[in-house]
Write a structure and sequence with these properties.
By secondary structure, this protein is mainly alpha-helical. The chain is 68% helix and 10% strand. The protein has eight helices and two strands. Strands 1-2 form a two-stranded antiparallel sheet. The chain is globular, with a radius of gyration of 18 Å.
């Protein structure tokens, strides 16, 4: 196949991401987490790593405080997060994962691990290690070394 006939790399990345997310959502739905929103995974990992205020979440999501507030309100109504007083600032409230949120995050992490094990079995460790190296390079050092994002990676 000539270079001009190879599928576009960016489109392949997009399609791979879409398929991964589709399989993740199906797995979570089968476990009773069937009402996942678009931002839920990022919020669950962020808040699970470190409870935070709406302002901090808005900054991390790069959206307005109002937008972050709407996401938190929605996730709170679905039982994934709770708000508690900040012990260091009586005026602030921190977003924490609820028991349901912790269970959803654990289920998602388990899916991620199982998915990678499947890929390693199908394609071999060397191939998956190479893909990981390429993705890490594409994400760039500022992203992969930023403490906010590092907390999401593990």
């Amino acid at each position: 196949m000539s270079a001009s006939r190879k599928p576009d790399f960016g489109i392949l990345l997009l399609l791979a991401d879409q398929e991964f997310v589709r399989e993740l959502r199906a797995s979570l739905a089968a476990q009773g987490f069937d009402e996942q929103g678009r931002s839920d995974g990022f919020v669950l990992r962020s808040v699970g790593a470190n409870p935070m205020t709406i302002s901090a979440l808005a900054e991390r999501l790069e959206i307005s405080k109002q937008g972050a507030g709407q996401i938190v309100d929605d996730m709170e109504s679905r039982g994934y997060v709770e708000r508690h007083p900040d012990p260091t600032d009586g005026r602030a409230r921190l977003i924490h994962l609820s028991e349901r949120g912790q269970a959803a995050l654990a289920a998602a992490r388990k899916f991620h691990q199982t998915y990678e094990r499947h890929l390693r079995k199908e394609h071999g460790d060397a191939a998956i290690d190479a893909v990981r190296a390429v993705l890490t390079s594409m994400a760039g050092e500022p992203q992969t070394t930023d403490p906010h994002f590092r907390a999401l990676m593990f």
